[in-house]
Amino acid sequence: MISNILKKSNSLFLRSTLSSNKFTNVTILRNSLFLKNNNNNNNNNNNNNNNNTNIKQTYNKINFFSTTVPNQNEKIELKQEQQQQQQQQQQKQQEEKQNNKINDEIELKIKILENSLKYVNSYGWTSEAVSKACVEMGYPPITQGILGEDSAYELALYFVTKCNTDLMIKLSDAENSEQQLLSGLSKKEKVKLALKLRLSMIKPFIGRWSEAMQLLANPKNIVNSSPSMLTLVDNIWYLVGDKSSDFDWYAKRGLLIALYTSAELFMLSDTSVDHSNTWRFVDDRVDDLIKTIKFKNDIEDTVGITLNTLLQKIKK
Length: 316
Description:
Blueprint lengths: L1 H115 L3 H4 L3 H10 L14 H22 L4 H7 L3 H14 L8 H9 L4 H19 L5 H23 L7 H40 L1
Helix pairs in contact: 1-3, 1-4, 4-7, 4-8, 6-8, 6-10, 8-9, 9-10
């Protein structure tokens, strides 16, 4: 009986021990699971923090590049603009120097040619007259090379161009007496006055003018000489108030060129006092010119009326 009691007590002890061990194991398991979860959570938090840190660093890097790269581009663009401005400024300075050099050269040419006119009556329209002018101005005779290969021709062309400009100034100046006389004249009288004023400009060199005419009419120079004559007659018709067009424009200028050239030739052999015969010659030729233009216009009007009449009859 006692043995039975001992067995029961042992079994109870074992049972209690097992149950306690079981509880302990469960507790240990729960604790281990809790720790594991905590560790996982901590790891997750650490990972999240690391991810957040990485994201923040990446964002900062992006911000860094987004702020630094444009600044670098702006610096490059600014540098390029500065270089372009410097190049433009240098180019502008070079152009100014070149223009100043050209202007200085033109002024020197004008001074030499203007001074050469004093020697025309003595040496003619020649390179020798130009050389004398250069020497007087303190330059060596070879300086006339600045005028080109034919300094004599350049001298004659300069004088003709200068006379055309002076005529335009005289007849265009409202305060000038010539302009006042011109405003009260008919077109025919205006043409006569303009031609006489222009011819009077060659009077100081009339004894040598045939040389200038030969230089200007030389076949190798005629291309450069023609514009001066065209400018003269065009200015005269403009000042007169002519508004012709089409064929009339060319016809009037062609006729006036022929008239002026013949007047110059007549003036070379005119020995009358104050070239009075030349002025009479101009008056007669201008009268003929106006009659010719009027006759031409009358013919054109007659032909036009006749053609219109014929066309009307044909239509009927």
